[in-house]
Amino acid sequence: MSDMKRTFMAGLVVAGILLLMPFYFNLIGYNNLPSDSDSNNLPQSKQEEKKALFDVPKKEINVEPSSATVGFGMPEKQYVISNNRFSAVLSNVSGGSLLSYELDPSVTQFRGGYNEEGQYDALAPVSLILNTQKKCAPCIQTVDNNGNTIVHEAPFELVSSSGLGSDPDVAPRLVFESVHIKDFVIQKTVTFPRDSFVINHHIEIKKNKGGINSVGLVWDKGLRNTEKNIPDEVSYSLSSVGMNKTIENITLTPTSISDVVEKKTYNNADWAAIRNKYFIVALVPKNPVTASHASSTFMLKEETLVPSYATSINSIHSSVLDCDIFLGPLDVDEINKLDTYLDRIMNFGWFLLQPFSRSVLWLLKFLHGFGLNYGIILILFAFIVRFVTGPLTKKSHKSTQKMQELQPQLQKLQQKHKKNPQRLNQETVKLYKESGTNPLGGCFPMLLQMPLLFSLFIVFRSTIEFRGAPFFAWISNLSQPDTIINLPVYIPLYGDQIAFLPILLGVTMFLSQRISMSTMDPKQKPFMYIMSVFFYLIFNSFPSGLNLYYVVYNILNYMQQKTLKQSS
């Protein structure tokens, strides 16, 4: 048996073992979930003992005796706010903190998420409030002239309201005031614009006898996970602060309940935000602020740890703060309504790739505007890209053919001048010039395609447009793998399911490589075959929309290569 066949058979054996491992584990009763970490097994109540990232040393607040009972004894009240974008429950804690926030489930992209027990429901509305043990979404904080910070978590009094009825043309507006503080009064107005994911918070310190230097907002409830594939979503999750069009990020991939990222503070910030794969909460003030962010670990469900980000902003030497809070999808059109550079938090790739990625996303949304199914659009994209890159592939093929024709002459030169490398180099360059052959001609056309191909990979893997979008038959969600068999355990690199499109992807890649490798050094062929198996393994957990595109693209690529080979 040849080396190539041995290597190929070894690759197939490895792939077969990986596929059979779950059935073996299930047979012997092995559970692959981590259970040996004591910190991971802490009950939910133990999370209350971890360090509060934005807690400040306890400090007595100057309270009027006559109003102490009113302030701290005031019952918490709740107000239901809804429009055609979301349904929310707002409490009077700190003058308006969200208890729940669910997006409109009539929109396909806004279905699917986790409930309070940590169970995933594909049909439930997306809920974006994560850590219900915390109170602030958001809370008001004040800083006095001595640098003392107080987070105000007491219920406020509702002094006026409008738009809480059924009139769709009147935006809900609630005005709260603190009633328990002696030296100053905090007035906060919360406005819910219609047809928007934005909530405006306007805070003003009145009767300021307490030397309040600045006022701010604290968001410590994190952002709830929305995707079934938690490891993939955590890889996108982060907290960001934007300053003069530069962005500072923190990330956390927790392995223990005690994992944290310490608080970091920045001056002259334009906004602060927390995102997961498809959704975002962003604090966007009207004027530059001081911003902070940090992260702790939250137990979403038993033995499933996720990052819980907290962020805060503070006005700079001002007792007034006007801030929009965007809580909704990472949709570039919605984000751009905020008239800031918050869209840079979206995953458009490296700087050089971003123009390509943005163009791809624009074309994607443009085609969908005609009512086309996203699956059909992905197939159209494959044809469009092959139309654009086809001439480059043809040019690369011709250049490769010329290089192959020169191989006998190059081998003669190598034998003739094997003891004189300098002369060999001179004669080789001369041969290239006389034959009009560019040794890089086969690679350069392919390199020109790379920015476009990388951009397609980035956009198709992370765009919210595919979330919950069906195609046909078993492909019911283009943002998730097209699973045909669920496995009993999770296999690193491969996942916990068998999907159909990655199998087609591996087959089409193998067929294309077999044609392109017909004149390749036999010693290099096994590595190319192993690469087909490797790509099959990693693409098994990728979104079905991305795999659908690459399957069609590979089929078209195979057909072109076969035609070029027959005509040469």
Total E-strand runs = 22
Q: Give the CATH topology of the largest domain.
A: Beta-galactosidase, Chain A, domain 5
Strand order of the largest sheet: 8-9-10-11-20-17-16-13-14
Largest sheet descriptor: 9 strands, antiparallel
Instruction: Tell me what portion of residues adopts beta-strand conformation.
Output: 25-35%
- The total of helices stands at 11
- The secondary structure category is alpha+beta
Contiguous uncertain segments of 5+ residues: 21-71
Q: What's the average pLDDT?
A: 82
Overall shape: it is elongated
The value of Rg in angstroms is: 29 Å
**Structural domain count:** 2
The CATH class of the largest domain is identified as: Mainly Beta
* Helix residue percentage: 25-40%
How far the N terminus sits from the C terminus, by CA atoms, comes to 31 Å
CATH architecture of the largest domain: Distorted Sandwich
Short description, anyone?
The chain is of the alpha+beta class.
Please explain how this structure is put together.
The two termini are 31 Å apart. Strand 6 and strand 7 form a beta hairpin. Helices cover 34% and strands 27% of the residues. The protein has 568 residues and is an alpha+beta fold. It has helices spanning 3-28, 65-73, 230-236, 332-336, 354-368, 374-416, 421-435, 444-462, 501-516, 525-539, 544-567; strands at 78-82, 86-91, 97-103, 111-114, 120-125, 139-144, 149-152, 157-162, 173-177, 185-191, 198-206, 212-219, 238-243, 246-250, 261-269, 271-275, 279-285, 289-301, 304-315, 320-329, 483-491, 495-499. It has a 9-stranded antiparallel beta sheet with strand order 8-9-10-11-20-17-16-13-14. Strands 7-6-12-19-18-15 form a 6-stranded antiparallel beta sheet, with no helix packed on it. Strands 1-2-3 form a 3-stranded antiparallel beta sheet, with no helix packed on it. It folds into 2 domains: 41-45 and 55-346, Beta-galactosidase, Chain A, domain 5; 364-567, no CATH class. The longest helix is centred in the last third of the chain and has 43 residues, at 374-416. It contains 11 helices and 22 strands.
